Amino acid sequence: MNRNYIIIILTLLFNILGISVSAQETLMDDDMAEKEMQILRCLQRASVDYSAEFDAEQFGLPAPDTLHLKNEYRHEVLALELCPIMPIGVIICISGVDSPSATAYYGHALEFYKLGYAVVMVDVGGHIKINDKKYEEVSDVQAITDYIKSKLEYTNLPIIAMGVAMGGTVAIRSMIASYDINAVISLSAFSSFEDYFAFNRTEAEPIYDLPNGGLDMIADMSEADSITLSKLCHVSGIDHRPVLLMQSRGDKFVPYTYFNQLVKATKMNTNEFESYVAEGNEHYVCGDFLNPASDTRYFYVLQRFLKRLTMHIPTLASRKLEDASAI
Questions:
Q1: Confidence bin at 198 (pLDDT 50/70/90)
Q2: What gap in Å lies between CA 182 and CA 66, rounded to an integer?
Q3: Can you tell me the distance from the alpha carbon of 38 to that of 28, in angstroms, rounded to the nearest whole number?
Q4: Pairing mode, if any, of strands 183-187 and 273-278?
Q5: Which of 87, 253, 295, 318 is 20 to 30 A from 216, comparing alpha carbons?
Q6: Secondary structure of residue 313 in the 3-state scheme
Q7: Looking at residues 237-254, what average pLDDT do you find?
Q8: Cβ of 271: how many Cβ atoms within 10 Å?
């Protein structure tokens, strides 16, 4: 629905209600201003106040190391690291826009840790562009992969990026941007707000309730080149590396039709592709994100995918948390 169409509808409505021309103009200006503000709120950089944060001790995990890193723009990247004895891989767990906090990955970290994976959990910046009109989340992830590559314990181990919602998108885009990432696990991914908005207008079924501004207005705010660069349908950079895409069929935030489009594009660019579809409307796919092993179907697919990546790496026959936390 473009700006002119909105104005025509509002004008007809106001005429029916007998509202004066000057009042019509004021109300239409207010309406468009509110829609512009909705879009701006989606695009602006802001610190996120997560509704829930968790502690490693709640999950029986040792206290993580807190990493203070810098991305290429010299902005701080904070991350939490858990490393067991003899790690067999490293999983970077990436937060979404406003939920969940990276600490919500502790449930996954517990299971990964028991399997022998090191875990680095990060709250990336909001899904925005700042001074130079570039998204920074991929740079945040690159700062973490640079750190991983610098550690002797992680030499020659696979690096897997995992994220949910916007974090799932960042995981894919990070793989496209860098060969440091060997595989991706992406849950309920969408690309940029701009791309999501455009898809919603033209292809989503049903149409989701998003701001009714025009694409030209969004392009003016965020620069047209960023729209092209952010689209997930441009996934040729995956270059035949393993990808696991996960989605719930009734997700109320990311349309299932969008997931199908992403699956189709990804299959064209890798032979090592897996997907998992959950019934219902679980935005985080797993029935209990804090306790992933309780969702047996979800966790089986996740564990099987990880084992494929590390089947040739020696590991302990039996790994216990107390053994790893004793060092």
A1: low
A2: 24
A3: 15
A4: unpaired
A5: 253
A6: coil
A7: 90
A8: 8
